[in-house]
Amino acid sequence: MKYINKIQSPADVKRLALEEMNELAVEMRTLLIEKLSRHGGHCGPNLGMVEATIAMHYVFDSPEDKIVFDVSHQSYAHKMLTGRAGAFLSEERYDDVSGYTEPSESEHDNFVIGHTSTSVSLAGGLAKGRDLVGGKHNVIAVIGDGSLSGGEALEGLDWAAELGTNFIIVVNDNQMSIAENHGGLYGNLEELRHSGGTCANNLFRAMGLDYIYVDKGNDIPSLIEAFVKVKDIDHPIVVHINTLKGKGYAPAEADKERWHWSGPFDIATGELKHVSAAENYDELTATHLLKLMKNDPAVCAITAGTPGIWAWTPERRNEAGPQFVDVGIAEEHAVALASGIAKAGGKPVFGVCSSFVQRAYDQVSQDLCINDSPATILVLWGSLSTMTDVTHLCHFDIPLLSNIPNLVYLAPTNREEYLAMLDWSIGYREHPVAIRVPVGLTVPARRPVPTDYSCLNRYEVVSRGKDVAVLALGNFFTLGEKVCAVLREKGIDATLVNPRYITGVDTALMESLKSDHRVVVTLEDGAVEGGFGEKIARHFGSSDMKVLCYGARKEFVDRYVLADFLVANRLREDLVAEDVMKTIGQM
Amino acid sequence: MKYINKIQSPADVKRLALEEMNELAVEMRTLLIEKLSRHGGHCGPNLGMVEATIAMHYVFDSPEDKIVFDVSHQSYAHKMLTGRAGAFLSEERYDDVSGYTEPSESEHDNFVIGHTSTSVSLAGGLAKGRDLVGGKHNVIAVIGDGSLSGGEALEGLDWAAELGTNFIIVVNDNQMSIAENHGGLYGNLEELRHSGGTCANNLFRAMGLDYIYVDKGNDIPSLIEAFVKVKDIDHPIVVHINTLKGKGYAPAEADKERWHWSGPFDIATGELKHVSAAENYDELTATHLLKLMKNDPAVCAITAGTPGIWAWTPERRNEAGPQFVDVGIAEEHAVALASGIAKAGGKPVFGVCSSFVQRAYDQVSQDLCINDSPATILVLWGSLSTMTDVTHLCHFDIPLLSNIPNLVYLAPTNREEYLAMLDWSIGYREHPVAIRVPVGLTVPARRPVPTDYSCLNRYEVVSRGKDVAVLALGNFFTLGEKVCAVLREKGIDATLVNPRYITGVDTALMESLKSDHRVVVTLEDGAVEGGFGEKIARHFGSSDMKVLCYGARKEFVDRYVLADFLVANRLREDLVAEDVMKTIGQM
């Protein structure tokens, strides 16, 4: 490592000769592959952006010039050149940096960005702000790796033309999203690549923007030439660069989807170090839907650019044919599309990560729920225990969705209950249904599971005790069982309830508890504010029933250790039981 | 009225000769202007769409063929031709129909649509559903009047190319949004108009779509010719029609922004029938911000295509110059832009209607709040008493925003408190701040108002009593005063609290109430589920305090009578007091 050790800041990049920059790129790629193989992370996007990042820091003057990455999971090379190479050099320091841009790490990072399609708008704001308060620096948005199809990006591009001052939008065109690209605009990018950027029809020019093309997007001199040309430009311009996703690691070049993100792997073979043969809920969902599709041409699965997160492998997508729709990164469109398909008699199932369903609140409310279109939304990974990066928290889907009228939001607690709810939802024609898919490995049912859920808001009493009732929602049903076990040791025979419905209160059951219960505990695997437990607290507000609500308190946490986080929120059976005993003691 | 009386359904349109259709258009326009002058409603958009609607129903076979309007406030002519002319013929029947498409009125309406930019995605779903379950009908999306710039519309257009089967997208290009258009794509539309649709650069073709242009978009034969050409087409195509907003009513043609929507007016002069000289909060906001802008170039107001709803007249926008930014209908971009401006040292104030802030939940959470950018969002019209169309309800902003970490959401109760909070927010650099702007006419303060709100979640105790505490949030502060007055008559000296902060509980104050209060009442002018009151109910869950939460119950209501609606939700001082007395009586 001759060069990377000497790069403390972009100023050190500027001192390198071209040949040295090429060697630097080789070193960076070696370090990237090594870290990724041991630590896991975004592979293809970062391997493809090494040269462009070197060239940007060679030409522009960060932090005076502002570079905004989106999706910021392609910012590893940027971190290596801005004083954070240590986090790629030694294994003990791998976790010194996040997988996204993070202003608290460096003045070279302008925003915390994890969701796609945001850089043009955020950087546009930096440019507008510069013009308001005075300044002459460059503002550069880096967008790509599939994020161009998101509504926010397209809104931003459309607006950018109006700014009228310096604004450089680097479009990293690696011909991929997480999976293959979808949407007509990618046809135009292809036309632009094939014509060397000269074809008459040009999406960016149609949006009012100036444009140049760099065919060799992994060639440092070509990139430098382009960036020098646009530096200090007096109007917005798109620099369209053609890069190779996964460049420099043969398996990643060969299978771009597999290598978008990877867990730790063996560098020689590309094989994953940790593979589990046990069934998880994502696999279960894909295989089950595929089975249903074969018997019913109306069933259709929709993804917004993330087929892999619910195990829709290329083989399965191929098998599903037109019954699988990838709309690209476009969650708003996905929800409205599902509403339309349902109104036309189809049976759409939109699978979306809890963190990304946030992008479509208005569409869930307006396009889906006001119209009462009987589509199904599968909310994936909704839990405190899945993604811990602050931008990808899956804590907020319950407050987000559960307060929208007409929506039935279900929380299954085991494998069979989940499948029964999914089957029921696909056939149900009264309301839209969302299902919070359990996380992790499947857990078999240990009690019979009904097939019909159309009598809404009827909770399941799993065991009837007295004094204390534990309403244990979805993933936290097992926590509820444990709380009851601890209480039993303390002489309390608690009632255990599987609420099943997040979106309504079983008022008859709640009223019946008043006769012989004094405390109701609610457990939900997500943010507590605006969620399920508060509805129960309000229901009992005018009564003598005590209600203790458990979930995560309102905060943005980042890269937390799950066990500590749960304890900090008193989400452990002994702590809940302790609170219950204390409450009873005070009565 | 020779023709309109005979039109029971589109079949009757098909029987007309060309000359008769022209006369029908004249009759329809006369009826539109008459109804609008007495009843109010969307003027310009509907006057411009008369011919296109006649031609569509002449060529296509609704309801077999599916027409989806967006923004559906341009569907009045469609209603007249689909069995609902009665609602335009006689004043008593004006309210038989809503101002938007409404499936419960007619099988010719496919969706309830009020928010913009949705038709391509919803109709795309109808087309995809048709292909899944089998069918050969045409699916037509009508989009325009500014709604093309919304992210959902752009996502939908991008996706449409992939459908590969019949799908007709009619772009109503009337050269306007509510105000003038903003965004680079409108430059391309202009180029297309000027070149008769032949210029090489074409946004729609760049998105992979086929395209034809109709220059005379208010000429029935031209429109029929185009629609005949695309009927039963085997792939997606855009029909770009050039129409005149406000056509046929001289004042509306002359001042398109003023006549986008109007209250009742005098046909001869165009003057409004009801004008109030009293100061309202929208006017106050615009004049106050304009004053601040003059002293501070960093202050900047942002709108997403709706300057008029907060009194940003063309004159005021002109005065603000580059300190006023209209991004077009693009709420997601507006929020991210504000975050960027704030990070660059600017002082952005994004004014947005409660119903439309819904479109930007993810941007508020990710781009703004995770980054803790000190921008201000003014939530306008947030109340049960403003818009009563189901698609425009302003009930949900509290559950939507108040559960997002880092955001400070304030609820002022009078004129001076609002201005103090606004001034404070613009200077505050710690967190993003949203303010729920009071609705209606301004109310002067009757108590001193602090200037600093940085000590978060400190409620104001307006009068200290005992037994009962009324937490009266924002617009419902006056209701709280009335509740206290009724309780006083019943011998109860209640504590009246102005919570000010929607996003947090004043735990010290709440704990202090435990000593001599038995009941806490929360009053919020919005949906109760997921809102402010439930946080209070949860806080007191483990205590003996009784909590009664008031707000609107979870439902989508449409065109309700406010007084009835309030009573149904027990939102009247006597009803609240009655509940309080009952609760006390049970203790």
Brief digest:
The structure is a homodimer of 587-residue chains. The first copy, chain A, is of the alpha/beta class.
Textual characterization of the structure:
Two copies of one chain form a homodimer. Chain A is of the alpha/beta class and about 575 residues long. Chain A is built from 24 helices and 18 strands. Chain A has a six-stranded parallel β-sheet with strand order 9-8-10-11-13-12, sandwiched between helices. In chain A, strands 2-3-4-6-5 form a five-stranded parallel β-sheet, sandwiched between helices. In chain A, β3 (about 140-145), α8 (about 150-165) and β4 (about 165-175) form a beta-alpha-beta unit. The radius of gyration of chain A is 26 Å and the shape is globular. The mean pLDDT of chain A is about 95. Chains A and B meet through α7, α8, α9, α10 and α15 of A and α7, α8, α9, α10 and α15 of B. Chains A, B: Belongs to the transketolase family. DXPS subfamily. Chains A, B: Its EC number is 2.2.1.7.
